Amino acid sequence: MARKNYYFLGKxxxxxxxxxxxxxxxxxxxxxxxPGMWYGKVLRSPYPHxxxxxxxxxxxxxxxxxxxxxxxxxxxxxxxxxxSIPESTYLDWQILSDxxxxxxxxxxxxxxxxxxxxxxxAGAVEVEWEILPSYLTxxxxxxxxxxxxxxxxxxxxxEFRVKNNIACTREIVEGxxxxxxxxxxxxxxxxxxxxxxxxxxxxxxxxVCRPEPDGGITRMQAGT
Length: 224
Known about the structure:
The protein is α+β, with helices and mostly antiparallel strands. 15% of the residues lie in helices and 24% in strands. The chain has 5 helices and 10 strands; from the N terminus they run H-E-E-H-E-E-E-H-E-H-E-E-H-E-E. The longest helix is centred in the middle third of the chain and has 10 residues, at 115-124. The two termini are 39 Å apart.
């Protein structure tokens, strides 16, 4: 088959931001400063599985910081469709929750006028944790009967139970597996583990938005 003359495929095109990046003149989200902008920090769980019995911002707020926890935000599962039980999304994922399910789960956010105040306030937050059993393999988690990582969630005030600790199901089908097994001369079965694969971006994911008087926001700059 003769090769087609593609206009884009197989061609070199200069990046629109190439010159600005090469000269150090590209504007990134960290370069954007708006009037009245504060610094923010997300407090994350040091435990793989725990429940917050009490969180006290009294000392942190004395420094002038503003603190928010699960008590201050709507109890809404932000990764769900509101009509039916979702697929390929975490069923019980909330913006802030009193229950953490992995090391690094967000449980509070703090904002302050300066980095110094922010650091002081973050260190002054007092949390009373109830440590729950952790499951380090999917098999152990699916066998668990008590102290489940994922147990229940709500859609329009209706309770749904999570089965076998599986809060996210994603099925990928490629070809006819059964036919492939029947035609194969050798079938090798094993357990394979791979790390997370990520592209090498130049900066963390970030976005600078400006709140507007009408309640909307204007995106000033974003990075990947």
